[in-house]
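hey so i finally got around to running the thing on that chain from the lab meeting. sorry it took forever, my laptop kept dying and i had to restart like 3 times. anyway pasting the input first so we r on the same page abt which one it is
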Amino acid sequence: CPPEPHQIWAVVEAVVAGLTQGAPLPPPGIVGADMVAVCEECPRERNVKHIERFYRPYEVDPDPNICLLEQGLMCMGVATRGGCGALCPQVGMGCRGCYGPVPGVEDQGAKMITAIASVLDAGKPGLHDEAKLEQQIEMALDSIVDPAGTFYRFSMAHSSLRRTRVGNGNGKGAA
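ok and heres what got predicted. didnt touch it at all, straight out
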């Protein structure tokens, strides 16, 4: 996403204050961005649904009043720093995560995986069959297209994922 006008103005003000008043520049990456998640800026209602699978945007017509993630549409808003006014979710498109992780979160993708776990409708009351529960969870997660690319689109370099290489031709990765 391009910077919003208020963010550009905040940068100009910070630079002018630094040059004319000797004020220190703010830390890189936060000028104009909020300290809360995109979800806090989003007018959609949360905590109303649980899902069994995820959908691509063309597969469903989302309810304009309910959280996109809770409708099975991938939305990174819960793991993404606000400041954009939740423009994408407001028009029915899930947040892509372009402002990076919320403050205090080192791994944006891991934060997103936690959020997904909170909306999955797995383990319904009375379900004691562990194999069936595992199958439900696996089916829901399999409906996420390109999880690594989705969860780490803008933050892979800062993720806790480690690159591996094949060593000695045995097919086992080595860190």
